[in-house]
Amino acid sequence: MIKYQIFGNRSDEVSQREKQHQQLARRAAAEGMVLLKNEGVLPLKADKIMLYGPGSRRTVKGGSGSGDVHERHSVSIEEGLLNAGFKFPSTLWMDRFEKKYQEDMSAWKEEVDSLIKGYTPFQTMQMFTVIVEHPAPYPACTPVMADELSDESDTAVYVLARQDGEGQDRRVEKGSYLLSDVETESLIKLAEHYRKLILVLNCGGVIDLSILDKVRIDAVIMYGQCGMEGGNALADILTGKVNPSGRLTDTWAKSYWDYPGANTFGYLNNNLESDAYDEGPMVGHRWFDHNKIAPRYPFGYGLSYTEFTIDEFHAEKDMVECTVTNKGTTAGKEVVQVYIEHHGKRDLAGFRKTGLLKPGESETLTVSIELENIAEYDENKKQFFNEKGIYEITVNGGKAGSFVLDEEITYDTGHYETSPQLSAKTLKILDKLSDYDKIDLVTGGGYAVRAYNNVMGAAGRTNTRMLKKGIPNIILADGPAGINVNPSMTIGKDGLPRYPEGLPENWKWGWLKRVERLMSLGKNGITVYHYMTAWPNETTLAQSWDTELLEEIGKAVGREMLETGISVWLAPGMNIHRNPLCGRNFEYYSEDPLISGKMAAAITRGVQSQGGVGVTVKHFCCNNQEDNRVYVSAEVSMKALQEIYLRGFRIAVRESHPWAVMTSYNKVNGTHVCNSELLCTEILRNDLGFKGLVMTDWNATNQCSHLQAINAGNDLIMPGDKNVRDALRKGLKDGSLNKNRLNESAGRVLELVFKSEVNKDFGR
């Protein structure tokens, strides 16, 4: 009889780990906020202020869908300001908005319940899909009324909020990318009444700020989606307890129509089947530089409460050394951004963040440069190169030096071994398994029910059919803003998890109760608690420009995985912010591949340093649109693909060696990524040198071919079901399933299973 593993805390008391991670989350949130404007009104003294806007009380901590986290408590902006000693003369506006919020949520729940009325408790994924396709609406803003203004304060803070999620892109419409009429009218009214007006952007990414050209707004803070400690972190920024040091990782245009591909992105193309990447590699700041378009806020922009100088440069082709000095009166941090210019093309080549510098204090930093990370790609020769000539180096807009390449530098591609290096243990097991057993191994085991280790709310598991053969399974949990699992669960004597009374608040209604009937609470079960940390979203983390911070957060995530019994984290997400309308940009880092790759590598190193836990970098590749994401084809040149959309993955794979890579839903140049041997094997393995496991996104192969996914180079089809097994067995019989690939994939699954800390005692 199999003895099921039980992980988690047996007590509902706040653990020491939670307390430590709360502090780290608070620091990360503050480091990732960007001060966009300040007309001398910040920092504030904790005093009477008026608070308005949807995000004030109902602060958006992160995205929905896979990006959600069920933490113990999330600090709203209202709560954070109260904790800091601020007082509100009136809360009439927030109270009225709260009433509308509750009404709108009730109406949404009724709508979703009606849509899933015919589903059985076994159709959990189908019910989840309904929610993804019909996300909870963030309520429309209510206008500010005359009786909601106050004469007891001269300062108003307005928190503009947006809730994004997977499965749907944003729109160039009022209330989405554009401000709504109510938001505009409210800001006008507040500007007229209050001497100081501060706008806080509780958004996953870029929004239109043309309001700044029309209305006096004294300060603007890109708050982002700051996770569970965001409210406290904002108070730290507003009061000056923390000096803002975040810098933008995206270009904020004056108009949406200034972005590349603006007219043809997603729904604007009137053709959701195909999106032509006609801008080539000129994405983000490269586009604005190339076309000499002045943005509202450039890539890398951010203000501080103090002033820094950067001088004493020593620049070479592989490094820049400089000294940063705080010339102001307030302690703070600075980000050193190194750019290389050649033949009119400017690339971010490296970056580092200083420690906390007191007034008058200096720090000398060395920023490493890898020329391969700014190399161009020759489609004819199929190789990267740096052409000969003069290369100018600038640091934070100032010239730092130059170097000359006397001859062209080329870089080899396509030279890595694609066959897995399997351990003797794996080879011995493989030799004893039938081809049908191997098919079971490469077919995911569905959701975490009756698994060797059970974690309710986890995204999936490997197949438990092999338990009787002495092969355990592992649990995979969603991210990327933290470990996405139930905050508590009860394990019955039969090893099955049950939903206890401690369901996440936003799950306590009809759709999940249908599932709950299948897994009713056992009388004699063991209840464990999995309160995870909701970190800032990945865009906000990237805006810290601090890889050491992200590595520290990765270590914290790894500790939570070990505590919970999670083996593989389905994060980090690292797709490029090609267009600000992508509904999932909040899950990704930047428009720039160097930022994306370095941040993903840092958090990967952190997680995997804890031993026996790993990450899945995703979504490989070109998952830059959510509308019709499973069918849309990204029509992109190999030059753009290599220089922009694959470069971040190349950096992350080579610098951090992630356990797994997840292929994306979409097509690239007409072929689903999970069915593309070019992408999954020739590029990912042979070119980028990836040696780990490749898995599909959930149900991705339902839109194409289960069999071709294995033949192309995927190792694990998730979440897996009978249809997948049947398709692979049919291919085995008629010879269309590549048996060598099947054997290699089964071997990689075994390697992953036995690397897991969860399984170290299996069978003992």
Can you summarize the main beta sheet?
6 strands, mixed
The chain-level mean pLDDT equals 92
CATH class of the largest domain: Alpha Beta
Strand order of the largest sheet: 17-18-22-23-25-28
Number of strands: 28
Intertermini distance: 12 Å
Query: What oligomeric state do these chains adopt?
Result: single chain
CATH architecture heading of the largest domain: Alpha-Beta Barrel
In one word, what is the shape? globular
Structural Rg: 26 Å
Computed structural class: alpha/beta
Total domains, how many? 3
Unreliable segments of 5+ consecutive residues:
518-522
At the fold tier of CATH, the topology name of the largest domain is TIM Barrel
Helicity, in percent? 25-40%
- What is the tally of helical segments? 19
CATH 4th-level superfamily of the largest domain: Glycoside hydrolase, family 3, N-terminal domain
Percentage of residues in DSSP E strands: 15-25%
